[in-house]
Amino acid sequence: MNSVDLDDVKVVAEFDEIKEMVEQDRQIGDRSYLAMWRRYRQRVLIAMSSQAFAQLNGINVISYYAPMVFEQAGWIGREAILMTGINGIIYVLSTVPTWYLVDVWGRRAILMSGAAVMAVALTATGWFMYVDQIYTPNAVVVCVIVFNAAFGFSWGPIPWLYPPEIMPLAFRAKGVSMSTATNWLFNWLVGQVTPVLQDVIKWRLYPMHAFFCCCSFVLVYFLYPETMGIPLEEMDVVFGEGTDPADIEFREIHRSAERPSNDDDDSETSSLVRGRRPRSYDSPAGSRLSSPAPNQGWLGAVFGRRKVGDAYQAVPSGGDHA
């Protein structure tokens, strides 16, 4: 994948790291949902919240009831159905840029930018319906298309990518199953209450979902760590886990048993995989992940953790690690 030989020191080091993590996962006896919740509650809640807000941000108000939305804005019959089809095509096309930008901009930037654009588009949709002028039908179509494109670019694909990334291998399937169940639960909830709310609060429905978009922006900004460029094996450190002496001792014992001693201990490979200590983590792929900033209450924990990816930097070849 990285256009290097199988014997490259970074490939060997990363392979050793993956074997280490698999061995650690095999030591976990209880793999129940309760055990996952007790040990990885924060990650489970983040995974579930991403799927919950994917629904609360209003996509199914448009997807399920688009003809009703356009009729409410002034489009009639066949025209409303045509606008729905055009909107769906744009929705699909908007997912394409994310394939390339997800590892350029990062997950956080895509989610936050999408939430901001969706909030503006939904607020404008409600406003144009409220004023009910001659330009309202066209204005609502534009706003809905912008909203759908923003969702397809951000909260459509990323909540399906993010949970598998942050969950540990031993509980990945269970964690993803809970996040997916959350998606369908809120999908059902939104689908059931939307027709009622359209009759009761009318145009106010759209600013209400804009509020949820703002909530999702704040949630991502404060609580979602960036995972771009960070190997799955390093996620424990991203969340401040796996850095206690017991975990480090396990890794050192396993590494000593797996790798025979030789006179080349100061080689680049050795420098990449040995000597990890609490609060400083050397990646097997030649990179270093510094730990979150010291905890100063919940604000310190949040702000220290939200940009963990920024600290993930290359380690100079052959350098000493603190």
Automatic annotation (TrEMBL):
Q: Give the source species.
A: Thanatephorus cucumeris (strain AG1-IB / isolate 7/3/14) (Lettuce bottom rot fungus)
Mind telling me which GO cellular component terms the entry cites?
A: membrane
Q: What is this protein called?
A: Sugar transporter STL1
Q: Give me the ranges of the annotated region Disordered.
A: 254-296
| One protein family per Pfam | Sugar_tr
Source species, domain of life? Eukaryota
Q: Which UniProt keywords apply?
A: Membrane, Sugar transport, Transmembrane, Transmembrane helix, Transport
Stored InterPro entries: MFS_dom (IPR020846), MFS_sugar_transport-like (IPR005828), MFS_Sugar_Transporters (IPR050360), MFS_trans_sf (IPR036259), Sugar/inositol_transpt (IPR003663)
- TM stretches of this protein: 44-66, 81-102, 109-130, 136-162, 206-224
